[in-house]
Amino acid sequence: VPDTPSTEAVDNIADTRKVPAELIAREVARRRTFGIISHPDAGKTTLTEKLLLFSGAIQLAGTVKARKSGRHATSDWMEIEKQRGISVASSVMQFEYRDHVVNLLDTPGHQDFSEDTYRVLTAVDSALMVIDAAKGVEEQTIKLLNVCRMRATPILTFMNKMDRETRDPLELLDEVESVLKIQCAPVTWPIGMGKNFRGVYHLLRDEILLFKAGSERADQEFEVVKGIDNPRLSEMFPLEIEQLKMEVELVHGASHPFDLEAFLAGTQTPVFFGSAINNFGVREILNALLDWAPAPRPRDASVRAVTPVEAPFSGFVFKIQANMDPAHRDRIAFLRVCSGRFERGMKVKHLRLNREIKVSSVVTFMASSREQVEEAFAGDIIGLPNHGNMQIGDSFSEGEQLQFTGIPYFAPDFFRMVRIRNPLKIKQLHKGLQQLGEEGAVQVFKPVHGGDLILGAVGVLQFEVVASRLLNEYGVDAVFEGTSISSARWISSDDKKALADFERSSAGANVAYDAANNMAYLATSGVNLKLTQERWPQLTFHATREHA
Ligand code: G4P
């Protein structure tokens, strides 16, 4: 018996497993995966809701909003759990619009701002930045934009709340350019503001979209007047039109014309003005997202770049969320598909564990219905139920040894020292923190010179979650205390001796190792950090590190 099958048999096998290349290419081309970045209260929830309304994914305004108000309640354990359930459901919203499949990833803001927020941005192909036009660029927007910059993510900008008294539009653009260091290309320009907000002028189409206080309806149409010189406009609001003409001239002279290449390179952002609550300017932003934002792009997988249209399935986990039932330690791992077609029930390889797993139950995220989805393509997010054997940064494939890169850990901004009330529980504490650390719920640092473990987080809610979960899942009653640490930096150097000297020096009192055994310096102040850096020029101090 020949040990190689006949060519006919090979063809047959290939036929049953082969996914037509054109099908994959078509599905990839119509996908857009993005996240909204904004400072709390800029209007992210409102805008999300309007986007879903447009797509027909939800019929009623208030749906998303209701979820959000649930999220703002108290922070005791049950509440956090409940909120988590809610946020699992709303953390990815998939909808169709104009024959495109749009995946909108929620970047939690507010009090539950955490490392998740950052990591979600590693799974998107573009981002929509929402700015409250009365306030301008705010703190959390700056942080989130810096994360986008790490991967040169293309950014669209929406200046929201033009129905209120806002800051001068030119000044807003200036601020974005100088603070966020990204070129602005206004695409629409506001006519008036607040009570005198008349609409926006589309600079590329020479059209005026007339403002009307919005309804909750998805199919709302705003009247369009063609041409800035249209006599109708001067009749309707003579003062504002004169002003607009002046401004447009200024804008044409002083700002940058929209340049698709620069946008895709992440160096220029097209800017739209509008009012989310009035549904005004929202369709323009959605259309821009479909027309300009990139479909899924190739991803670095260490050994090679993986292109979205290749037939074998691959993807990586960027977020892990504890599920509703703490008794079962159920978790959902959020996986971004990077290539091929995922089919429910298929076998995939968990590359870190070198183990094949059969994925029979997956969670997907159609905003309109919570059906089990049968297939997914590059750009889509699938939720894998996970009993603790998946970590952030884990890669999956149909067998090839890939390791997707670019999942960052960020230097924490908040620190706590952990003590336990019952010293006999020390083992459980370490086990719990190890697992929670792997899951990315918190960062754990062990000082070289003994002492208590130090926890680091980018949002304080992370500590509450960890305390509750230690108690509920590991039976450890831990006390968190403030520390004198103000920031952390990971240390690297080619000079082994310098590293050892550093650890033995007086600075060594502030040296610790994280869960993945990377050396870190825990600084007590900005000045302390600066001085230490100056004293140790052989060492590099990193504010981020990549998943190993
Ligand atoms: P967030 O998710 O970014 O935190 O913001 P969210 O959408 O919740 O909006 C924050 C507040 O801003 C809300 O008011 C919302 O109604 C309001 N808002 C959003 N878009 C616009 C807009 O275009 N114009 C105006 N004038 N307001 C806008 P709130 O009073 O906090 O909540 P609510 O009582 O309206 O629910």
Automatic annotation (TrEMBL):
Residues given in the record as GTP binding sites: 38-45, 106-110, 160-163
Highest taxon, organism lineage: Bacteria
Location of the Tr-type G domain: 29-297
Keyword Cytoplasm: yes
Record bears the keyword Nucleotide-binding: yes
One family name in Pfam for this protein: RF3_C
CDD domains with a match to the protein in the record: RF3 (cd04169), RF3_II (cd03689), RF3_III (cd16259)
Keywords for the protein's UniProt record, in alphabetical order: Cytoplasm, GTP-binding, Nucleotide-binding, Protein biosynthesis
UniProt subcellular location: Cytoplasm
Functional description taken from the UniProt entry: Increases the formation of ribosomal termination complexes and stimulates activities of RF-1 and RF-2. It binds guanine nucleotides and has strong preference for UGA stop codons. It may interact directly with the ribosome. The stimulation of RF-1 and RF-2 is significantly reduced by GTP and GDP, but not by GMP.
PANTHER family registered for this protein in UniProt: PEPTIDE CHAIN RELEASE FACTOR RF3
Family: Belongs to the TRAFAC class translation factor GTPase superfamily. Classic translation factor GTPase family. PrfC subfamily.
NCBIfam families from the UniProt entry: prfC, PRK00741.1, small_GTP
Protein name: Peptide chain release factor 3
Organism of origin: Noviherbaspirillum album
